[in-house]
């Protein structure tokens, strides 16, 4: 059953500059501790005609739009044609994919955002990986630390998967839609193409191509 959470099942690795890092793992959360070192290595190889280095360990594509009020702390890579909007806060260890949007007052850290990801309005995304065209509605957030500070586990169809991580937010597959003001609790994994209703509190694994209405009520998306 764990196969449903594999990287190869939920992510198109042609849609991220972090493909080499992800190819070395089976499950997406396994690369979280290595994002920073990967950025430092990759940043030095980025073509100077497309990227420029700004500050310490921050590489920004020349085609990206970065608001003057945004703050970007390294290590970070901001991809081509992406948009970093007013008062966005990028705390470091962040890869923002091509055409992605980090919006007004959104905070991200230790993340991989695939190409065309949108976290556009008052979002917090930490210790998470968001697949191609994943979208988080306004006010939706990832919670990345358990209240008792114990290691994060993932509830997958009645079994607990041990991650060995103290901090893990959400793993969202390609084309996932998260409704406004939802909370993705530590150890949330949402399969590709799934949708989460607004105002949801999500925990554990949500299978691909399904609709999460509430805890215990997940239905399959028809005609897929």
UniProtKB/TrEMBL annotation:
Residues 72-192 form the Mannose-1-phosphate guanyltransferase C-terminal domain. It comes from the Bacteria. GO terms for molecular function: nucleotidyltransferase activity. SUPFAM superfamilies: Trimeric LpxA-like enzymes. InterPro entries: GlmU-like, GMPPB_C, Trimer_LpxA-like_sf. Pfam families: GMPPB_C (PF25087). Keywords: Transferase. PANTHER family: N-ACETYLMURAMATE ALPHA-1-PHOSPHATE URIDYLYLTRANSFERASE, NUCLEOTIDYL TRANSFERASE. This is Glucose-1-phosphate thymidylyltransferase.
């Amino acid at each position: 059953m764990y196969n449903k959470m594999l990287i190869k099942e939920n992510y198109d690795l042609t849609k991220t500059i972090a493909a080499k890092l992800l190819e070395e793992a089976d499950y997406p959360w396994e690369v979280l501790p290595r994002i920073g070192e990967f950025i430092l290595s990759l940043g030095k190889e980025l073509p100077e005609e497309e990227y420029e280095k700004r500050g310490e360990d921050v590489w920004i594509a020349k085609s990206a739009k970065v608001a003057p009020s945004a703050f970007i702390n390294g290590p970070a890579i901001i991809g081509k044609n992406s948009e970093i909007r007013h008062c966005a806060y990028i705390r470091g260890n962040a890869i923002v994919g091509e055409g992605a949007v980090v919006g007004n007052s959104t905070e991200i850290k230790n993340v991989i955002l695939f190409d065309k990801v949108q976290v556009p309005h008052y979002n917090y995304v930490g210790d998470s990986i968001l697949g191609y065209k994943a979208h988080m509605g306004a006010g939706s957030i990832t919670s990345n630390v358990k209240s008792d500070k114990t290691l994060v586990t993932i509830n997958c169809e009645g079994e607990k998967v041990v991650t060995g991580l103290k901090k893990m937010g959400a793993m969202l597959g390609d084309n996932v839609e998260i409704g406004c003001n939802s909370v993705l609790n530590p150890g949330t994994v949402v399969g590709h193409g799934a949708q989460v209703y607004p105002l949801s509190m999500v925990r554990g694994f949500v299978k691909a191509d399904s609709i999460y209405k509430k805890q215990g009520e997940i239905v399959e998306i028809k005609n897929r």
